[in-house]
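New to this. Please check this record:
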Amino acid sequence: MTPPEPDRGRPVADDQVRIVPADEASWDDLRAIFGTADYASKCQCQRFKILGDHWTALPLAERAERLREQTGCDDAGASSTSGLVAYLDGEPAGWCAVEPRTAFPRLARMRVPWTGRQEDKADDGVWAVTCLIVRKGFRGRGLTYPLARATIGFARERGARAIEAYPMITRPDVEITWGELHVGSRNVFADAGFAEVSAPTLRRVVMRVDFRAERPVGTA
């Protein structure tokens, strides 16, 4: 089905959006979101999962098959999944990659996540949001905002003690290509409640939510 033309004058309302773990979505829905023409279709959300020359050597069909296995699409009983799928007015419209930070081995080789702070790269209690995708025909209505908010409960319910993201700083009248912005923008994560913990470059920040165990009533 061809998606509707985007209504850039009307941000999405909460009651228009349904967000589910990817294993509750169909593979056809995910393929519709990733499309066939731009950065998302080429990456298949594998950029942070593949090291070195394996990234350029891996055929597109295999990238897609890896994504299908990682998400557990069409299998609501999957033991794990790798992200969230957003539906807008019932149509598959957005994707967000969110998993333990250790699920993204390329992050361990990058400067952005680690500059200016001390972190255990092997700590799988810290989760990471690495990618936000909005399907063509649905862009320009703020769908990344509810997706970013949904990552917090998704990670907390699965035992994370913290969740972080590595978004770009956007400025008025400064163009950022869609491919660059797949990590999300600082404003989106600030709206969701993420706090900035470091600014490793002029264009990128690390933002984070730390979960604290709830204390029983009556305890100090």
